[in-house]
Design a protein that fits this description.
By secondary structure, the chain is an alpha/beta fold. It is elongated and about 65 Å long. The chain has one domain (about 55-260): Rossmann fold. It has helices at about 10-25, 30-45, 75-85, 105-115, 130-140, 160-175, 195-205, 225-230, 250-260; strands spanning about 60-65, 90-95, 120, 145-150, 180-185, 210-215, 235-240, 245-250. The protein has an 8-stranded mixed β-sheet with strand order 3-2-4-1-5-6-7-8, with helices on both faces.
């Protein structure tokens, strides 16, 4: 459990309950311990709402912000989400709010072409908030259903950068439409720092869900169990590869089973 990055606090809590059951002779062998543990972990994840919130009644367009640290996979995840939403029949505009990373705008423009989404870009180094605002206004003028807004990678320990991200959220809501999702993208290899990231980003931007990326390797991504059970932020999607179709809904039972697979 520790090697899978569940963390000491979560592991201790889960094992305490198991020890009590063993003492009461409710569980009498090692197979029973593992089965009970799997059941308990899946049960703790069972009731979360993992749907992506698209609500035209709150305004057009709906706005989904992608946030997270550098290298977590925000831009690629945004593109995958765009492809899924377009497949559902919704019109999508990408707002290239990452104006600091070299070639970020070009990367997003390539994805827009591949997926059939519209895109609004700003100049390199431009104010990210203004780019997102322009994207939302453009989407409203076109009658576009959904704006997917990329943001620059943020170190959660940098107060100035997090303040800027707060501004992006505020400005997005000053335009037409409404922010209905803020998706925190977390790399499955992040480990315990992922919980710190989630706390800081949730405070700054009112995170509504987690996208767990890079789960196609050896990383278990167990830290998201702590994020969900301790912070109440549901894991909504998992990235399983680099292609546009490699994004799946989070399945608690499959996730828990994978934690125990060698």
């Amino acid at each position: 459990m520790l090697r899978a990055d569940l963390g000491v606090k979560v592991t201790t809590s889960l094992l305490a309950s198991l020890r009590d059951r063993v003492k009461r002779r409710e569980i009498t062998d090692s197979a029973g311990v593992i089965a009970a543990l799997r059941h308990e972990m899946a049960a703790q994840l069972a009731d979360a709402d993992r749907s992506l919130c698209f609500d035209p009644a709150r305004g057009t367009p709906n706005i989904w912000l992608m946030v997270g640290v550098n290298g977590a996979g925000k831009t690629t995840s945004l593109a995958k989400i765009a492809a899924q939403q377009i497949a559902l029949g919704r019109s999508v505009l990408m707002a290239a709010g990452d104006t600091f990373r070299a070639a970020a705008g070009e990367q997003l423009e390539t994805w827009a072409t591949r997926t059939g989404a519209a895109i609004v870009r700003g100049a390199e180094g431009a104010d990210p908030s203004s780019v997102v605002f322009d994207g939302v206004q453009s989407a409203a003028a076109r009658g576009t259903d959904l704006v997917l807004a990329d943001t620059a990678g943020r170190l959660q320990t940098n107060t100035n950068l997090m303040d800027e991200l707060r501004k992006v959220r505020r400005v997005a809501e000053k335009a037409a439409g409404a922010v209905t999702e803020v998706l925190l993208v977390i790399d499955a290899t992040t480990g315990q720092n992922g919980l710190v990231q989630a706390k800081q980003f949730a405070e700054a931007t009112q995170v509504t869900g987690v996208v767990l990326t890079k789960l196609d390797g050896s990383a278990k991504g167990g830290i998201v169990f702590a994020i969900e059970t301790e912070l109440g932020i549901p894991v909504k999607l998992v990235g399983l590869g680099e292609t546009v179709d490699d994004l799946a809904a989070f399945e608690p039972r499959e996730f828990v089973d994978a934690l125990f697979d060698e």
